[in-house]
């Protein structure tokens, strides 16, 4: 295995941009595509920038400068379970290195795992329970590793009962301990004990070349971190992935291509099979230029709804937003149709409820709750209204149909799946009544708070992209209704602004779900009031709104003692949704739609929304390895 220097330049890209600097960047970025049989090679866009430390493959060390999405965690690393945010090949939950699902004792203080037998590391060593025990104990003993903190927090002891059985004793009841080993985007990867046990300092070890449990090994990589090439193992059938079939490609190339325009050009030219993300305009252009390229949906809006929920987040430690009548008034001032057009050019999947409209959630949440939403009544202080409009998605589809024609679905169920089931009506009169009931007054076109000061605040948003567009439009709509709102592009929004509570309101997300399962524990446990930080202190991950509610705590506490696969979790999820509607602590807006694209020139079998939604097509997720088992070459040279 060697580091290959870049050999090819893209003349087309140079011409397209007409700049020497751009051409040199692309020359440095291009892998040696002509050295690999195209009919055996899958070329994937890695959305990350070039790795800071390309030689590092030790993914267990935090802040090591290595790439996360270069194929290593998709093709080489492995762990006990995977949960796909979509339907899955045979259900969304995969028993991977584990032979079956987790086994807890009655009070969730112990967990037993039965492992698959006959699984080999890529160097021929057998995978056993000792590898799992070593992984946990090493990270507990070594602060600064990625999973040191959760293992130290939850694990009392771990032992190998035999070669294929692992037993955990936990420090306290935890019905979701298995989720640490359950990959959604990534998870606690198992370390090869026979490699790391010989290393003096595991945090300084670069693990190059990596030894893995997945079906591929490292072939070569760019010393500048722009590309990584992986080759299928001859003994791929000795990996856990073999249960779902042989991966189609012999070679898989992950390319970091910072320019979205260059991604589009490379796909049109046949030098890229899967694109992680384009701008909405880039996707529209790709569809026009290439008849063999497509997105998640067969037509408009094309994009895949990720299991994250962009929203308006209010800081509940700010007195401006502590009255739910104010929060509801702000929601009813918004026109979701205009937000969809401004952010995604209409290609948004709207959600009025606090659940992303992705994966199995429309089946479990959005569709079943439609009647409840339609009948939901809101007291404005002057009258009772029904604020929900189930036709909003249909209206957006009608708005884009003149431009995109037959690309826009006409079937109502298909429209709801693609554009959303509905949203709140823009009702300025009701918003006025709510604010007046809360003690606000209007002077001219300016709302005044009960203390006599103007109702004004800053809305922190992303620096660019669809969330920036969304935030800008929302701020504009509120300003038009008499609230002085300034949208501020914030480069530190997730790094410090939200965690430290240094904001009044923001457009971001604090809800991320499994997507393929109705259980909400992925984000919900961190919303318990016990974790809410004091003003100015760093907030534990996800409850950026710092919202407390006794009913919310009751739901979370019951989830904690309910087994992951218990149908009761869906009932608790419905209770959560209804509480969120009633209190409106955040204003859900839409899914984070990702304009992932794939080309069918050399490979077929990709997941599709309409025929086979078995996997999330976003290329940086580790779940994407299941796609490779479904790919078949078209035999085109």
Automatic annotation (TrEMBL):
Q: Does the keyword Signal apply?
A: yes
Among its keywords, does the record have tRNA processing? Answer: no
User: Which Gene3D superfamilies does the record match to this protein?
Assistant: Dipeptide-binding Protein, Domain 3, Periplasmic binding protein-like II
Q: Which InterPro entries match?
A: Peptide/Ni-bd, SBP_5, SBP_5_dom
Signal peptide span: 1-23
- Where does the Solute-binding protein family domain start and stop, copy by copy? 93-527
- Origin: domain of life: Bacteria
Keywords linked to the UniProt accession: Signal
Looking up Pfam families in the UniProt record yields: SBP_bac_5
Q: Where in the cell is it found?
A: Periplasm
Family recorded in the similarity comment: Belongs to the bacterial solute-binding protein 5 family.
Protein known as: ABC transporter substrate-binding protein
Q: Which organism is it from?
A: Chelativorans salis
């Amino acid at each position: 295995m060697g580091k290959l220097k870049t050999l090819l330049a893209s003349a087309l890209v140079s011409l397209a941009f007409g700049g020497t600097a751009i051409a040199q960047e692309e020359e440095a970025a291009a892998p040696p595509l002509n050295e690999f049989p195209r009919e055996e090679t899958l070329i994937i866009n890695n959305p990350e920038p070039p790795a800071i430390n390309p030689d590092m493959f030790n993914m267990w060390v935090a802040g090591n400068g290595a790439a996360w999405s270069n194929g290593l965690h998709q093709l080489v690393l492995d762990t006990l379970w995977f949960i796909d945010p979509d339907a899955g090949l045979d259900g969304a939950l995969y028993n991977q290195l584990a032979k079956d699902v987790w086994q807890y004792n009655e009070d969730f203080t112990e967990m037993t795992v039965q492992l698959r037998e006959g699984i080999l590391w890529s160097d021929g060593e057998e995978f056993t329970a000792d590898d799992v025990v070593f992984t946990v104990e090493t990270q507990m003993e070594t602060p600064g590793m990625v999973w040191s903190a959760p293992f130290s927090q939850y694990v009392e002891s771990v032992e190998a009962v035999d070669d294929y059985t692992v037993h955990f004793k936990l420090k306290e009841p935890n019905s979701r301990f298995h989720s640490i080993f359950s990959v959604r985007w990534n998870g606690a990867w198992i370390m090869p004990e026979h490699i790391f046990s010989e290393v003096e300092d595991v945090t300084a070890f670069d693990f190059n070349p990596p030894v893995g449990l997945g079906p591929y090994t490292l072939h070569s990589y760019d010393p500048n971190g722009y590309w990584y090439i992986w080759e299928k193992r001859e003994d791929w059938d000795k990996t856990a992935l073999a249960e779902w079939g042989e991966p189609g490609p012999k070679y898989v190339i992950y390319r970091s291509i910072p320019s979205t325009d260059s991604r589009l050009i490379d796909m049109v030219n046949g030098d890229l099979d899967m694109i992680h993300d384009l701008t909405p305009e880039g996707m529209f252009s790709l569809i026009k230029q290439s008849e063999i390229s497509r997105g998640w949906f067969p037509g408009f809006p094309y994009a895949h709804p990720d299991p994250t929920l962009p929203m308006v987040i209010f800081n509940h430690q700010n007195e401006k937003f502590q009255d739910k009548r104010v929060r509801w008034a702000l929601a009813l001032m918004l026109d979701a149709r205009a937000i969809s057009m401004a952010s995604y050019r209409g290609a948004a999947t709207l959600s009025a409820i606090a659940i992303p409209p992705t994966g199995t959630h429309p089946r479990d949440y959005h569709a079943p709750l439609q009647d409840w939403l339609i009948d939901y009544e809101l007291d404005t202080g002057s009258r009772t209204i029904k604020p929900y409009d189930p036709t909003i998605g249909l209206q957006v589809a009608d708005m884009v149909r003149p431009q995109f024609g037959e690309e826009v679905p006409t079937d109502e169920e298909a429209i709801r799946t693609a554009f959303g089931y509905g949203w709140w009506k823009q009702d300025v009169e009701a918003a006025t009544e709510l604010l007046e009931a809360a003690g606000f007054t209007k002077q001219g076109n300016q709302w005044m708070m009960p203390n006599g000061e103007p109702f004004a605040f800053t809305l922190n948003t992303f620096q660019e992209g669809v969330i920036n567009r969304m935030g800008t439009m929302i701020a504009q709509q509120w300003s038009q209704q008499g609230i002085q709102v300034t949208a501020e592009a914030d480069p530190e929004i997730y790094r410090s602004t939200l965690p430290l509570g240094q904001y009044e309101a923001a457009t971001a997300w604090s809800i991320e779900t499994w997507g393929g399962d109705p259980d909400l524990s992925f984000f919900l446990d961190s919303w318990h009031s016990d974790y809410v930080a004091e003003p100015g202190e760093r907030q534990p991950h996800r409850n950026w709104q710092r919202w407390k509610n006794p009913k919310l705590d009751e739901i979370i506490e019951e989830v904690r003692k309910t087994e992951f696969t218990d149908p009761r979790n869906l009932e608790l999820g419905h209770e959560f949704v209804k509480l969120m509607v009633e209190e409106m602590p955040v204003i859900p807006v839409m899914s984070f739609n990702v304009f992932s694209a794939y080309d069918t020139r050399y490979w077929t079998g990709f997941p599709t929304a309409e025929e086979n939604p078995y996997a999330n097509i976003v290329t940086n997720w580790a779940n994407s390895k299941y796609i490779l088992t479904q790919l078949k070459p078209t035999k085109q040279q």
